[in-house]
Amino acid sequence: MTSLFARQVGIAARLQPTDLGVESGELVALVGPNGGGKTSLLRALARIEGAAGQVSIADEDLDQCSLARRRQLLSFLPASRDVTWPIAVRDVIALGLDRPDPARIDELIALLELDPLAERPVDRLSTGERARVLLARALAPSPAVLLLDEPLSNLDPYWVLRILAILASAAQSGQAVLVALHDLGQLDHFNRALLIADGEVKMDEAPAGLMASERFEDVFRIRALNGAWSIRRQADPRSSQ
Amino acid sequence: MLLAILLLAAAIAHLLLPVGPLREAQAMDPELADLILAQLRLPRTLLVLGYGAVLGISGAALQAMFANPLASPDISGASSGAALGAVLGGYWLGLTQPLLLAACGATGALATLALLMTLAGRRADTATLLLAGLAISLAAGAATSLALALAPSPFAFYDAFDWLMGNFTDRSLAQAAAALVPAGIASILLLRRARALDLTALGEDVAASLGLKPRRLALEVIAFSAIAVGACVSVAGAIGFVGLVAPVFGRHISRGHPGRAMAPAAAIGAILLVLADMVVRAVPLDRPIPVGVITALFGTPLFVWLVVTMRRRVTA
Question: Is-above-0.90 flag for pTM?
Fold first, then answer.
């Protein structure tokens, strides 16, 4: 079942017009060099101002549907963890919901182990703690599509694994999950990967095939050597071919 | 609830105190006492309450919009711009209609806020915002002085001094209405954006992904704040610090939510301005001191405290 369908989405000078379809239950990684367009693609899919094209989720055009409906269709988590105001953790999560739902908030607080922080102002937390709070906000309405920009940055190893598990179970329950990330070691946890560079989607396949390809190494300017990534030298015979 | 009771008490106290003249009038002629209450005391009380509430609401809205607890009608230069607009309208265009003067004040405030947005951007860091606001305030202040000095009427300067820094004496019901009707409408429109402003706390991108239009919201906040502040300034002068301080306490009540802080900030702003005006009336001088002097006197230490706590948070 197609969950998200994007037609000719783009952002002037940042992202070429792109078509994209994501099935419900898919866990999709967006990888690519800095400035390649991962964030731009997520922003275009989230219909943030300045985005061209058309996005529909569950056959509903996002630009046409009501604010309440939109919350059920998608959540966007930006890479920035900044919150200006001293809002309590519990209240930040509540901002993700259309109407008060203490049971759902408790559930998310338990899921992300935020109990000891629940009443603390979010602007006083560490970056990693804020990352969990803001992810909880994005998860709160259980939307059809999750667009997450680097949700695994600033996290300790335990939380990287925990959140990968949370995302996997979100996908299992039928949500479509798109995640921008930098750590190529995390790609194994995804069932589809997009390679994004120069403002376009260069490759779109299973993570294993992606990483094995020459194009992947070209774009990232690295190569696999003895089971680890290393910087590709200018004189590398493969790149001169 | 407590806030509502305090607000009511402050309003009644402001209306009835000092009670001596009312008693004397009552003894001479009951109708005279009613007249004093309805024609003199009531416009003043309404104006003080309304202006204080406007400062609280627009201060909270501007702070939410700029994502900065130091944005406010005075620091952004909006009050100075409104004063300039009203001075130009009153002394150069010869306008006397309160509503037209209110329009001039709103135009001046709008021009300064638009300039601030252009100079500093929507989510400027504190230094940029303060410096741009300071530059605009100084320029508007200088332009106001110049406009008064060169005004056709030689008495403009003395005349204007009486209201420029805040004065509520002898305002008619028509003047109060000219300030409060547009300000009231603009304030209601601001209050209706509380939820949207709360969501911008998560960042403009999140707000936009939820279907809000951050750019349009910013323009609305600027336009409505300018109308509300401009109309009040044109009748009662530019009053500082209330719009800066009331939202800080408002956010304590709204548990940090910047948009939801508007309503409590309105009540707190009204209470603060009522207290300041009661101080003005209580000071035994033969000519009234401007209300803005009182609010600055009490507001400056609070402002310093705010800056110090902000700096501590940044360095922590």
Answer: no
